[in-house]
Design a protein that fits this description.
alpha/beta, seven-stranded mixed beta sheet, two-stranded antiparallel ribbon, 363 residues
Length: 363
């Protein structure tokens, strides 16, 4: 039976696929209480709990009990369920992924949880390519049939105060009324460049680590790659090099169409998309604008808009570039999470003013 409930303005969130906590940190910065983060990767637990005021549940989403999530929300709050599923299966970086990959169906499992819990608010973030697949259309149809007003659009993170060209698909949904992501103009946030965010970090050579910040560590370079980065100019490509430095794969006809590897970033532009392999010079345009090395793990985290003090590895534990790089590259940029959170807060204020409170039909 439907019954009207008058909610308070306080938003509580549960962050599924929480990773290292990028979305959670952004929501916290927007004033939203994230009570629980859920992820199946044990490497996420330390950075998530060390940097956020949230509990962590190590569990695959297909094994999550809806009752566990419902119990994580405070009484009479506005409930937000976030589900930023892994994007690799829809990404252009993984062209062979498809419906046989179990990650393909995680969005529909998230949809089932939404139908079970019926939170007032829902959000997700993913790669733009997801919009072309039927699983996304099914997700939208499920939200619509469950009484949600739905907004989704592709945004460039560089317009939201993130020093990185990163196009992302962002969805917001509400059972309270029409909802939209606030525009960069409405937020009045500054656009940042690589220089503004990482120029002041301690200079490093390839293979070196900052004594004050172990995460500010740069990968080693082979003799050949050291010659290549010295021959690279910011914003340039390997096509600028002496032919003797060009890799054999790029001399082939098929390889000539991939100029965006072995490149340096430009100081006065946002960075390229930070992938899980950003710490390797040959994996993209991840060369430091000035120093002869790839960017460090800390620099990658900063370009993902994590705070400079964000912890990814327990003190005294060895740092795995592969693991930390994966956590950073897979994260929702913190500032994008904050934009989503501020949008929900403004939405709640608007509904309260319009209705004299925040009523909603029974759950």
């Amino acid at each position: 039976m439907n019954r009207k409930i008058r909610l308070n303005r306080k938003i509580n969130a549960v962050d599924l696929f929480c990773g290292a906590g990028g979305l959670t940190k952004g929501l916290e910065q927007a004033g939203i209480n994230v009570n629980l983060g859920v992820d199946s990767d044990p490497a996420c637990e330390f950075p998530y709990t060390a940097n956020n005021q949230s509990k962590f549940l190590l569990k695959a989403i297909e094994r999550v009990n809806p009752a566990d999530l419902e119990d994580s929300f405070d009484t009479n709050c506005v409930r937000l369920l976030a589900g930023c599923a892994p994007c690799q299966t829809f990404s252009t970086y993984y062209p062979k992924a498809g419906p046989t990959d179990k990650r393909w169906w995680l969005l529909l499992i998230f949809s089932d949880l939404v139908k079970e819990i019926k939170p007032e608010l829902v959000t997700m973030e993913n790669v733009p390519k997801l919009r072309k697949h039927h699983v996304f259309n099914n997700f939208i149809e499920d939200l619509d049939s469950s009484g949600y007003e739905v907004f989704h659009d592709i945004v460039n993170c560089s317009e939201y105060g993130i020093p990185q060209h990163r196009p992302r698909l962002v969805l917001l949904a509400s059972r309270l009324g029409p909802i939209k992501l606030l525009t960069p103009k409405q937020l009045r946030w500054k656009r940042y460049t690589v220089r503004e965010k990482i120029e002041d970090l301690t200079p490093l050579e390839a293979g070196q680590q900052d004594k004050k910040d172990p995460l500010h560590t740069a990968a080693c370079l082979s003799d050949m790659n050291l010659k290549r980065i010295k021959a690279s100019i910011p914003g340039g490509t390997w096509r600028d090099w002496d032919p003797s430095l060009v890799a054999s794969c790029h001399r082939k006809g098929s390889g000539k169409t991939y100029p965006s590897v072995y490149g340096r970033m430009s100081w006065d532009e946002p960075a390229p998309t930070i992938t899980t392999q950003f710490f390797g010079f040959g994996n993209g345009r991840f060369g430091h604008p000035e120093q002869d090395r790839a960017i460090s793990l800390r620099e990658g985290a900063i370009l993902q808009s994590f705070p400079k003090s964000y912890k990814f590895v327990e003190p005294g534990k060895p740092i795995s570039r592969k693991n930390v790089g994966r956590l950073i590259g897979n994260a929702v940029p913190v500032k994008l999470g904050k934009a989503i959170g501020v949008s929900f807060q403004k939405h709640i204020e608007k509904m309260e003013i319009k209705n004299g409170g925040i009523p909603i039909q029974g759950r």
